[in-house]
Amino acid sequence: MPDMGESSNHFSLNGTWRIWPETIEQQNRPSHVAATNNTKVLPDFSNITWQDIYVPANWYLQGHDLHDVVWYQRIFEVPQSLINENNVVKLVFEGIDYEADVWLNGHYLGSHQGYFEPFDFRVNQLLNRDSSNILTVRVNSPLEEQDQDWSLHKRFIKGIFAHHDTRPGGAWTKRGQEKNTGGIWAPVYLQSSNTLAIDNIQVTPKLNHDGSHATADVVVELDYQDTESQEITLDFQLVPENFLGDAGEHVRIQQRIHPDNNSFRIHLEQNSPKLWWSWEHGDPNLYRLKLKITDSTQLLDQHETVFGFRSVEWDHKQQIWKLNNKRLFLRGTNYIASQWLSEMTADKYLFDIGLMKKANINAVRVHAHITGQEFYEGCDRNGLLVWQDFPLQWGYVDDSRFREEAIRQGKAMIQTLYNHPSIFAWSLHNEPPWDADWMQYKYKTYDPQQNYQLDQALFNGLKGYDPSRYLHQASLTSEHPWWGWYSNTFEKYAEPTEEPLITEFGAQALPDINVLRRIFSEDELWPDNKSDWAKWEYHNFQQHETFNLAQVPMGKTLNEFVNNTQQYQAVVNQFASEAYRRQKYQPVSGIFQFMFTENWPSINWGIVDYWRTPKPAFEALRRAYQPLLPSIEWTQQRWHLGEKVNLPVWLINDLWEDFPNAQITFSLSHQNKVIDSRQFTHNIPADSRQRLSVANYAPTQLGEYEFIVTLRDHHGDFLADNLFLFQIDPTAASNTDR
After folding, report:
1. pLDDT for 689-731, tens place per residue?
2. Rounded to an integer, what distance in angstroms lies between the CA atom of residue 491 and that of residue 485?
3. In the beta sheet, which residues pair with residue 721?
4. Is this prediction's pTM over 0.85?
5. Dist. CA 261–CA 223, nearest whole Å
């Protein structure tokens, strides 16, 4: 939808509505029946007891733990100015989870499927001008059928909201569909215009090779339902949005519109454009495109949309990303803001984006779902790149109807988010069954070819729909190594990889004790029976992976338990990040740590808990993701007395800036005293990786040592640092002597 703001032609329907949840018995009766002309008949509400609910909101957040069919109703009056004789009035829903049938004053308007897509109905002929209006919505957010292997054959395109190991109940318990996300979760309003309505404005930015000239390829879609053709004038203007500059010239074109839908294309030229850059490389410059449509005497409609001049491409041959024709390395994370989207606000999204930038993240993967529009707007304005997943998570039914609906919703995703310059890639399916042979251990009916045709059809259906962005068919298990959590040990990250994109890696960690107390009772804080462990599992904690695979000790106290998991998560995230960055462009072009925040009160892979308190892994990732990084290569953390400690040091520079004669300091400390310090100068080229030298030590005392590498520029100003803690233990012989 075009950007909407409060104005005289915008009437909000947010606020107090009323709801009536149908019982299972009522749902099995024909509460509304199909009739002629694709209409549906409302049930009799005369004996209904309604409950108040606030809209927009997921019903769970309003204290209603519901699923399946819930009826919504809103009684309202509209201002006369909204419904003048020639006005076009649209009833707009920005998001309903998951299916909706809509009536206004008893007239059936139509239906919609899919939780993330805005949709609207033309209602100017149905509104009461002199009396109240009754808006009725049948919302259906059903559960998947709880038969054998239900989660392998899902029917609804809800991604992580329907099935995931970070949602309430996790992925593999019988309670994994609880706390349903249904409801009218996004704003509802009436939008009025004169004679016609602007339905969509799509802007494709195009740059010449050096970025000195740009074109905005603009497509405008209009809804015009009059019976006669009409001459109109479209007035376009580009205005700087977040930087100082002169407004562009008005570009006016004359067009004749005809009854029904109309589409027009125009190319707007921009000399010396201010380009959109990711935050560490420049300013995320944005433009506002203003469009006014008039006839010979009056304004008919006007809308604005914000976009940026930029190009992001994936060079298949070199397997590198380019932003505005400059090579770019992605330091990313996976993100699920909340299990219930209405919980998030623009300020909450901006807070998360601020944390991401503090952690030196320049790209975020919106993991197997589409989040709120405010997040994308925040990323646009903060120079944070977005890898956008389509909401396909693991297994789905294989039939033609589902394939057609997936393609339709895939196109809706692209159209809805098209103008956001932060979005640089679409990814269509996370770990589909045809790629995930681990599913054979979870499902008796596993088919290694399942969903292959679905993904082929979806990819082919979308591959020409947005030629300006990279389209990724699936996020495959080869991109998700998960060493040290689901298999092997985390040290395996040090081995060379053949994958240019690593889109998941990480480990779980408990939040702080004060956070655990908000999730569990005092008796449950130290789980020591089957019931306690079941509740921990419900809140996503993975026992087997923590204790048996990662071999994290529980310890003897809750403090030890929390500390052990947090330190392990910190080590894994930093070790993996640095190992992959040392393989920059050889062949690694981007990495995405899993997960940034916890999306409900839980224990999962987030390095920031649900209440937004960072865990130690946040600092570890911040250090490993420094754009200019002195990386310390290690594969062990303990040595025996008398053994030599050899620590190769690398310099990774993601910045497009040289650092000549940089000052490099190696410092070794023991018991808070510096026992060795070496300094030298070195030239650090822009956008580079270098194996610098090996720091060699032969410690003579037992205990913990701290090795620090510090970088300063030739003026002595601080650039970056890194540290590595290691332990010197007694020799085997001395242990025997004791």
Report:
1. 999 999 999 999 999 999 999 999 999 999 999 999 999 999 8
2. 11
3. 710
4. yes
5. 5
- How big, in percent rounded to 5, are the helix, strand and coil portions of the chain? 20, 35, 40
Dihedral sign, Cα of residue 547, residue 552, residue 557, residue 559: negative
Cα 720 to its chain centre, rounded Å, is 29
State percent of the chain over pLDDT 70.
96
Q: Determine the Cα–Cα distance for residues 336 and 130; give it in Å rounded to an integer.
A: 45
Chunk the chain into consecutive blocks of 10 residues (it has 738) and report each block's average pLDDT, rounded to whole numbers: 54 97 68 58 92 98 96 95 88 98 97 98 94 97 89 97 97 94 98 95 95 96 90 97 96 93 95 97 98 94 97 96 97 98 98 98 98 98 98 97 98 98 98 97 95 98 95 98 98 97 98 98 96 97 98 98 98 98 98 98 98 98 98 96 97 98 98 96 98 96 98 98 97 54
- Extract the tokens encoding 629: 């990084």
pLDDT tens per residue across span 71-116: 999 999 999 888 888 899 999 999 999 999 999 999 999 999 999 9
Give the orientation angle of helix 346-358 with respect to helix 373-382, to 10 degrees. 40
What pLDDT, in 10s, does the model give residues 108-144? 999 999 999 999 999 999 999 999 999 999 999 999 9
- Residue pair 696/675 in contact (Cβ under 8 Å)? The answer is no
What is the amino acid identity at position 152? L
Token pair of 198 as six digits: 């602007």
452 contacts: CB under 8 Å, gap ≥ 6? 432, 434
Q: Could you tell me which residues come within 8 angstroms of residue 205 by beta carbon, excluding any fewer than 6 positions away?
A: 214, 215, 216, 217, 307, 308, 309, 310, 311, 421, 468
| Amino acid sitting at position 440 | Q
Which 8-state DSSP code applies to residue 251? E
Distance (Å, whole) CA 203 – CA 214:
12
State both tokens at 517: 């107390």
Alpha carbon distance 251, 265 (integer Å): 13
CA angle 34–40–46, rounded 5-degree value:
120
DSSP 37: G
| CA separation for the pair 650, 689 (Å, rounded) | 7
In 3D space, the residue among 375, 387, 383, 380 whose CA is nearest the CA of residue 351 turns out to be 375
What one-letter code names the amino acid at 64?
Answer: H
Please name every residue paired with 696 in a beta bridge, in sequence order, or none if there are none: 646
Q: What is the radius of gyration, based on Cα positions, of the chain?
A: 28
Instruction: State phi, psi for 514 to the nearest 5 degrees.
Output: -60, -30
CA distance 639 to 637: 7
Task: Calculate the CA dihedral of residues 149, 152, 153, 155 and round it to 10 degrees.
Answer: 120
Give Cα 152 to chain centroid, integer Å.
Answer: 23
Angle (CA) 16 348 563, round 5°: 125
Q: Are 363 and 386 in contact (CB under 8 A)?
A: yes
List, in order of start, the domains of the chain with CATH numbers: 10-192 (2.60.120.260), 195-307 (2.60.40.10), 335-627 (3.20.20.80), 630-737 (2.60.40.10)
Residues 416 and 239: their CA atoms lie apart, in Å, by: 22
Three-state secondary-structure class, residue 366 = strand
Angle, helices 558-581/616-624, rounded to nearest 10 degrees: 10
Spatial CA neighbour of 116 closest among 185, 38, 207, 42: 185
